[in-house]
Amino acid sequence: MYQNFPILIAEDNPVSGKMLEKILVREGHKVILAENGRIAMEKFNNKFYPIIVTDWMMPEMNGLELCKAIRAGDRQSYVYIILVTANNDKQKVVAGLEAGADDYITKPYNPAELIARLNTGIRFLRLEESLKKANEEIRKLSIKDSLTGSYNRAFISQHLPQELKRAIRYNRPMSLIFCDIDHFKRINDTFGHSAGDQVLKEFVRILSDSIRMNLDWIGRYGGEEFLIILPETDIHGAYFLAERLRKKVEAMVIGIMEQTISITASFGVTELNHETAYEAGADEELINVADQYMYKAKNEGRNMVKGPGL
In which domain, by residue range, is 66 found? Predict the structure, then answer.
């Protein structure tokens, strides 16, 4: 469990450095050697190392200076630093810890003690990894719709204005598609709500498979209504995508409890108007316009795309 964190060693004595490397490699660690603190800092700046074992006394940049330089940086992940010193003076030890070291070991050190202290640091880093994963899961839950995996209404309210601002700032096109599953209540009434949930998930899957990853995004606006946000896309591109989605949804067959369900959807398309985009509530107006076109599609027979000029 302890072999996944690469270790950077800063040691100016070649014999001590090789000895330390041999001990750590024998334990299964990947080790990188640096001849002094300055070189160690250069290596660290080029590649992140979560564990650093550094000697105190070194030319050009000593261990304390290396600790301070690392702690001065803004790191997304923690760096666990073990300071190796020949001086067991308590004031020196305190100075090392205040400089940013997490632990220390005095020369000549016992290899078993070194490994034990190193494993303490690794347990700390493992805990940090677990906490980061848990926080990421909490963050995802706070912005995602739990059923479909699309973004929720809160995310839409926060991020759609940001997309508008970006499009305005760089004078770039942006479009929005409002879509709604036709006769969804009939599906719930006929097949049950669990079937309706499955339809919603399959519907979003079809949408997600057809948009650009890391650029376009989908939000559940409410019930069976969804928004598709299309940065860097003009109205013609939005029309093309909406019609492609309409055909894919129409062709979709969902198997539920030895039965099959076919659905259609109605789509409303609109484009950012740069002349009015500066006005307050421009994001809500964009949604409202697309919503109106979607209802136009509903009123004219459903299973169609409507927008300016259509």
Answer: 7-141
